[in-house]
Amino acid sequence: MGTETVSTKTMTYAQAICDGLAVEMRRDPDVYVVGEDVGMFGGGLGVTLGLLEEFGPRRVRDTPLSETAIVGHAVGAAAAGLRPVAEIMFDDFLGIVMDELGNQAAKARYMFGGKVKIPMVLRASCGAGIRAAAQHSQSLEAWCAHVPGLKTVAPSTPADAKGLIIAAIRDNNPVVFLEHKILLGVTGDVPEGEYIVPLGKAAIKRKGDDVTLVTWSAMVPQAERAAELLAEQGVSAEVIDLRTIVPLDKEAILESVAKTHRLVIVHEAVRTGGFGGEIAALVADEGFDLLDSPIKRVTAPDTPVPFSPVLEDAYLPGAENIAAAVLELM
Amino acid sequence: MPVTTLVSYSVQRVEVMDVDGEVDASLMPALSPERITALYEVMVLTRVFDERMLKLQRQGRLGTFARVAGQEGAHVGAAFALADEDWMVPAFREAGAFLLRGMKMENFLQYWGGDERGNVFPEGVRMLPASIPVGTHMLHAAGLGWAMKKKGERSAVLTVFGEGATSEGDFSEAMNFAAVFQCPVVFFCQNNQWAISVPYHKQSQACTVAQKALGYGMPGTQVDGNDVFAVYKTVSDALENARNGGGPALIEAHTYRVTDHTTADDARRYREDAEVEEWRERDPIERLSRYMKKNGLLDDAGETAVREGAVAKVVEAVTAFELMEPPPPEEVFAHVFAEITPPLAEQRDRLLRRLEGRE
To answer: Are A112 and B334 in contact (CB < 8 Å)?
Structure first.
């Protein structure tokens, strides 16, 4: 390790993504941003603010209200050598574009015998907590994880958001990049310039010895707070932020469980078919002998995300739920 | 308050050559005798190849595929108008276009025989592989057109689809996207009247597919799809206009599927033989050969020679195809990602251990 210090700048998660986009757009003329309202309006949730001024309308492309075309044209443009970064505002709209994403982008390389590469990024906001009701609040990373050929990324901090969007753009595969709405305004120190967080590498957010909390996206700060609550009760929790869902950093999970012997998986997505089940199966399969207690999941219930603030607050897993689940194991 | 007409439209149909091989000289595209002969040879090769593929399929030596017989005038004529720098984004009923664009016949057989390595085109060939899902590829064509425009290339994109695909939402989104951004894309519809068992009049209440272009703000034209000169001329003009920044166009080739939908179908269950016979009389290859004979470009001996030459090429390709080794089992993990991911590498290694009897 050298002694050089990386200069950082305080910015929001949304600004960090935008900074990452700008860094790549300056470096590579083939990178462009495209979607509904990404230009003049600055993105459905304000992430692309300022890009139009710097890069102009040919590289910050406002489109018709046409999600299938946003993703479908990106498949063609990527096949022709461009690196589109497409936005569809909400991951709830994955249902509209799933053919182009799951059947076309994800399978083109495979079905074309490796000849075609589809280096595209699909950005979408995800998650609940802003009173946006059932059709604009879901966490659908498991949908994407279930399709071979797609990579899925869900950062939890501004620095990771920047480092991962750059890695996603440089990746030669289609990458789904999920930006949690509740995190967009969260600030943090972000390295300036070309800062890359490799896909497929989890982050250990807090070291601990008694239990492993595996989580991602907006549940990371909840797990960190739960770890603090647990520390007050003499329980030492290790918090792992997956950052990338696919490819999964299973070594990080298994190494941690080898140390703590307990596993609690936390995600905002609904329980049944959630990616937590996959992690539980992985540890049951390859780390069964490491465990001193059953594996627990803390998730949203199997219901649509409620519109009512009272219901939505009750619906979302929080630090207290996580701490309580851990204490059941101790 | 006055009622005014804001828009009115008309749709034109282009025919250059009649069934007897007589051409309208004022519309005849500038094609040298050598080019016309080349066009004829590809059409015949496509027909012979199609017939041979059917035999292979019936013998269990090839998987299900979509026949092209009777539609050579449409898709070969359209692909013949492409320059090397242009892209083609096909559906799945354009065998002749694949051959024209430089795909080896044995690789075409390899793909339809169930080996995706057959989809690897020779370097530099600007063509996407067949799109089996209906209509999804038109969006890719719009994106390729957008890429050509963004890169400042003077090239265009030809995408081919059937009339059934025009009922998919993808058609609308691709047409609108291409029109709004003036992408250099020619949308070429092979309206062969039947989408499996659904006839055109149950597919759409629009008199023509061509008129749908007007709703997106682009020109739409119908051509006699069994008249290869009309197809070639109309597509050439539209491609050239697109290359020059004139934006996209929709061309409807009015043709007919004289065969079954695919080898997994029996069209006699849903349509009358008489209708099929009527269209067989408008066969695009026969029509071109009549023209060529009238104009001294072909005689009976030449016709036989072209057919025999095609048969020889097809036999050679079938032999090459049948000598191909199947892919190794671990190939299933190749090309999922640009570089294999650690979880996939583990799954591959487990498969190999199992195959070697070590697990």
So the answer is: no
pLDDT in tens, B270-309: 999 999 999 999 999 999 999 999 999 999 999 999 999 9
pLDDT at A2: 46
Q: What is the pLDDT of residues A270-329, one digit of tens each?
A: 999 999 999 999 999 999 999 999 999 999 999 999 998 899 999 999 999 999 999 999
All residues at 6 or more sequence positions from A82 whose CB lies less than 8 Å from its CB, including other chains: A30, A31, A32, B147, B150, B151
pLDDT tens profile B188-245: 999 999 999 989 999 999 999 999 999 999 999 999 999 999 999 999 999 999 999 9
Q: Do A69 and B176 touch (CB under 8 A)?
A: yes
Could you count the other beta carbons within 10 Å of the beta carbon of residue A185? 12
Q: What angle in degrees, to the nearest 10, is found between the helix axes of A158-170 and A13-27?
A: 30
Please give the class, per CATH, of domain A8-191: alpha beta
Best mutation site among B173, B332, B340, B347 for testing chain A: the one with the most A CBs within 10 Å?
B173
Mean residue pLDDT across chain A: 96
Q: Is the per-residue pLDDT at B329 higher than 90?
A: no
Place A11 in a pLDDT band, splitting at 50, 70 and 90: very high
- Shared domain for B277 and B338, answered yes or no, is no
> What ipTM was predicted for this assembly?
0.81
The total of structural domains in chain B comes to: 2
Q: Which pTM value belongs to this model?
A: 0.90
Residue numbers of B annotated as active site: 257, 261, 270
Between chains, do B139 and A69 touch, taking CB under 8 Å as contact?
Answer: yes
Which residues of chain A are within 8 Å of residue B151 when distances are taken between CB atoms? 80-82
Nearest to A249 by CA among A186, A295, A304, A204: A204
Test the A interface: residue of B103, B110, B132, B144 with most A CBs within 10 Å: B144
Inter-chain residue contact A73 with B146, CB threshold 8 Å: yes
Name the segment(s) of chain A with CATH classification 3.40.50.970: 8-191
Residue B29 lies in a domain: yes
> Nearest C-alpha of chain A: how many angstroms from B5?
27
Listed in order, strand segments (DSSP E) in chain A are 8-12, 31-35, 60-62, 83-90, 121-126, 151-153, 175-180, 187-191, 203-206, 211-215, 237-241, 244-246, 263-270, 296-300
Residues of A in contact with B177 (CB under 8 A): 63-64, 66, 69, 73
Domain A203-329 classified CATH 3.40.50.1110? no
Number of A–B residue contacts, CB under 8 Å = 135
Pick from B177, B181, B343: CB nearest A247: B343
